[in-house]
Design a protein that fits this description.
single chain, binds tryptophan, PH-domain like, three-stranded parallel sheet, alpha/beta, four-stranded antiparallel sheet, Rossmann fold, 3 domains
């Protein structure tokens, strides 16, 4: 069976070298792996949450599509499309919205950060928070679940979103009694470099320290020469460690070239010469891409056609058949149709709340407590050993009062009364 790998690209801003090294280049390389079916899409609906300047949204979508194509993504070998060209994603978002628990969305990092900031500023909790920001994780879950993606390569900041996608998918499967959705796994690549910016901090638009990917050659040179260095003169040995210049070089050079560059540092290469070498190394890799990029940007109608074609084929092959099935599953049906036999969910013997122990990617031990519908009630923190988790579970199983749930090892996901009721239900059933 092929593994389906899917990732979304937020269409905001102009791509910089950090995006290229950290996301575009590894993804294009991974898309050539055998045995994978890759999905890369422009998350333009997501971008509306932050960007409400239509001209910029359009421009950014074009630039980012051209960047991925210029970097070598092959639209006849991978699925390359624009989220907004697949209306079934938005329809699925609503189906998932109706099974998603609001309590979980309340805990989404981005939303919580907005609330925390409002509190710190003495504002109303939800001041200037749109429902779009709040619903972001549900739209993202629809992106992933609609194509039954198995793996989702993302940055660490997105792990929670993938967990939510699993949660919503699982709840939908449970409520409608069939494995409609595969549950996605997050894929974190720790080998991918985070690139330093001009000032040595992580290259990021928010630090205003980026080198845009496709600036003209002369501009690239100027930017490289503006990279912050220490004051050591030519002839003085230089540290590679903590040197932004060195790290940038390493991200573009082979192991041998990097070793030679390190030697040059030890031998006291002057900063001007080192910058010249870095500029030439980056430029050698980027020049062919830049040429393709400029050619593509001059023919936006071709990019438009590529994206539409990808979305059209995907809709025919996966999205429309799935949504036809899901509409039927939820009961949005032809009224003349005979009602089917009761679903598995309806006939299955009454499920119970349960504790589930598991080990996560961080190698620590966790547990969850879910109710009969699979809704998350308690999430534990990580433990060093399974028996530590087991001890807390044993205590929780006996809990009858709110104060017995007061431990820093767990986070309640719903009001205390609901948790206590579920614990009682479990005890009654086990008695
Ligand atoms: N939220 C992701 C980011 O900010 C972008 C994204 C949207 C995405 N939908 C997705 C990533 C689906 C993976 C899968 O980077």
């Amino acid at each position: 069976m092929t593994t389906r790998v899917l990732t979304g690209i937020t269409t905001s801003g102009t791509p910089h070298l950090g995006n290229y090294v950290g996301a575009v280049r590894p993804a294009v390389a991974a898309s050539r792996n055998p045995g994978v079916e890759s999905f890369y899409f422009l998350a333009d609906l997501h971008s509306l949450i932050k960007a409400q300047d239509p001209a910029r949204t359009q421009r950014s979508t074009l630039e980012i599509a051209a960047t991925w194509l210029a970097a070598g993504l092959e639209p006849d070998k991978v699925w390359f499309y624009r989220q907004s060209d697949i209306p079934e994603i938005t329809e699925l978002t609503w189906f998932l919205t109706c099974v998603a628990s609001k309590g979980i969305l309340n805990r989404a990092h981005a939303y919580k950060a907005a609330v925390d900031k409002n509190r710190a500023d003495g504002e109303d909790d939800d001041a200037a928070v749109t429902a779009g920001l709040f619903m972001y994780p549900v739209l993202m879950a629809a992106d992933i679940l609609i194509f039954n993606a198995n793996q989702v390569p993302v940055g660490r900041d997105q792990i929670q979103h993938i967990e939510m996608a699993r949660d919503f998918g699982q709840r939908f499967n449970h409520v409608y009694g069939k494995e409609y959705f595969a549950l996605p796994e997050v894929l974190i690549d720790d080998n991918v470099a985070t690139l330093p910016g001009l000032d040595g901090r992580k290259m990021s638009k928010s630090y205003n320290n980026t080198i845009p990917l496709f600036v003209p050659r002369e501009e690239l040179k100027k930017l490289v020469f503006s990279i912050l260095t220490d004051s050591r003169g030519p002839g003085e040995a230089k540290d590679t460690e903590g040197s932004a210049l060195f790290q940038l070089y390493q991200a573009f050079a082979s192991a041998e070239e990097t070793a030679a560059f390190a030697q040059a540092f030890a031998d006291g290469i002057g900063w001007g010469d080192a910058k010249q070498k870095l500029f030439e190394r980056i430029d050698a890799e980027i020049t062919p891409l830049r040429e393709r990029y400029l050619a593509l940007m001059a023919r936006p109608e071709e990019i438009e056609a590529i994206l539409r074609d990808g979305a059209q084929r995907l809709r025919m092959k996966y999205a429309i058949p799935l949504l036809t099935e899901l509409r039927h599953a939820v009961g949005l049906r032809n009224l003349a149709e005979q009602p089917a036999a009761p679903t598995k969910a309806a006939t299955a013997k009454a499920a119970l709340p349960q504790f589930k122990q598991y080990r996560d990617k961080d190698a620590r031990f966790y547990f969850k407590f879910t109710d009969a519908d699979g809704q998350l009630l308690i999430q534990s923190n990580g433990f060093d050993a399974p028996k530590d988790a087991g001890q807390i579970i044993a205590v929780l199983k006996q809990a009858e009062r709110a104060d017995q749930l007061e431990t820093t090892e767990i986070v309640l996901q719903v009001p205390v009364a609901e948790v206590l009721a579920a614990l009682k239900q479990l005890r009654d059933a086990e008695a």
